[in-house]
Amino acid sequence: MAARNVRQKPLKSAGFPSRAQNGASVAHERQAGRYRPLPTGTHGLDPEVVKRDQRGRLQQAMIELIAEKGYPAVRIVDLTKLAHVSQPTFYSLFADKEDLFLSAYERVAARTAKTVLRAYEAEPSTDGRLSVGMRAWTELAAAEPEAISLLVLGAFGAGAKALERRRLALDELERRVHAARSPIAGRGSRTGETADLTVKAILGGIREITATRLREGHASELPALAGELAAWAGSYPREAPAGLDAPPALGRRAAGGSAAPASERARRAEGRLPSGRSDLPRQFIVKSQRERIVDATAAIVAEKGLAALTIPEIVRRANVSNQTFYDIYTSKHDAFLGAQKVGMHQALMVAVEAYQAEQDDWPRATRAGLRALVDYLASEPAHAHLSLVDTFAACPEAIEIRNSTIQAFAAYFGPGYELAGDGVEVPAIAGEAIAGGIWQVLHHYVENDCVAELRDAAPQMTYFALTPFLGPEKAAAYAVEDSA
Q1: Domain assignment of residue 370, given as a range
Q2: How far is 176 from 192, CA to CA, in rounded Å?
Q3: What's the pLDDT tens digit per position in 111-133?
Q4: Contact status, residue 305 vs residue 160, Cβ threshold 8 Å
Q5: Do 362 and 432 fall within a single domain?
Q6: Same domain, yes or no, for 178 and 120?
Q7: CATH, residue 81
Q8: Which of 233, 255, 290 is a domain's end point?
Q9: Between 20 and 30 A from 365 (CA), which of 83, 101, 148, 343?
Q10: Is the whole model's pTM more than 0.90, yes or no?
């Protein structure tokens, strides 16, 4: 399967609720319709109704302005002007811009879950539930791309609270879908969270497919993909075959937990070159300095968050001078992207090398590639965190690097289509959806500071990757083969 050519495009404008919009009529419709305030003066309306209306207008204004100019550029004066409320009214309803953002995000998440699950649970046929649920999701995303983009991607620069709120909202949606899908939800769980990764991976694949179309400005294509997505998701049985044990449910690892051995690349970068004049080739010196800078960048972001990343801290940890830093990178933002590229490139390289070593046997090659990938991530926890988690708080360029890597992984599922049995029609979307689903599982483990436990999840990820092509029983057999 060829990788999709992902290009960054602005989201098409859409309302919340949806309505057709174009050209100059957009601004007029926003002002005259959606943001029309309730009557002023003596109107006899319940004060709580008035507040709810004002909150809703401000929440919608936040969603639209984020799509238009990005979260950091949104000002309270812009919000109040678009929503037709005064600044004193704003501060009577919300503490600050972040408080409004979190409120808007919760509104989108709750409304989306209600819409999709209501359609899913209202369908009397078990076989038909996936189709109606998928149709509800894709139609909502096509009608309201700004809101759904906020749900699946978050907002650059919105901070740690926003990322945490995104995680909690998506986890709750997953929990509810799992409960509706399977009567055995929670099997093997220590904390009430499902230990079976299949639903997490399926929802992750659907989110990735949706996010890609939204970023490309192709939200209108999503309803046409609902049937393919439902057929792909329906290829996984409600319970994994016997013998494919679910990994333990995750709780955040306590500080000081065991760490996996560092990768060869990380050990090489830890070495310090001799100070002063050196007979080493200039190219070798610069490579060492660059690796130390990207490792320092990844470590700082993993420990303290993107907002705490500073050039003085980078150069101190990397043991380089300010001049050396600026000889290699123009800014801390550039260093972040450099660190992300290193992590993504190494992850792809080790997975491809393992895959190619067994490429004559595609199922075993896929299993080998996934095992090599999780081993690498476990050996580079800081880079894993930066590439898989912190990307969402960085910038559009970081998302573009991430997406290109996922699409490169998706290309390796192409041979699976030729292995499908007679009468088995694998949806064309499967490879892209599987790559996205696996990426979301990786994100889940890294975000919960349990990267070393990824090895326990490798068999289930292999099962997830192979099932649409081989069927669940054969996929499970390959997944657990030589897994000790």
Answers
A1: 264-272+280-480
A2: 12
A3: 998 998 899 888 888 778 889 99
A4: yes
A5: yes
A6: yes
A7: 1.10.357.10
A8: 233
A9: 343
A10: no
216 located within any domain? yes
Q: Looking at residue 302, what is its pLDDT?
A: 87
Domain check: are 92 and 131 in the same one? yes
Q: What total of structural domains would you count in the chain?
A: 2
Whether residue 431 lies inside any domain: the answer is yes
Residue 311 resides in a domain: yes
Residues 424 and 315 in one domain: yes
Evaluated on CA atoms 144, 90, 52, 109, the torsion sign reads positive
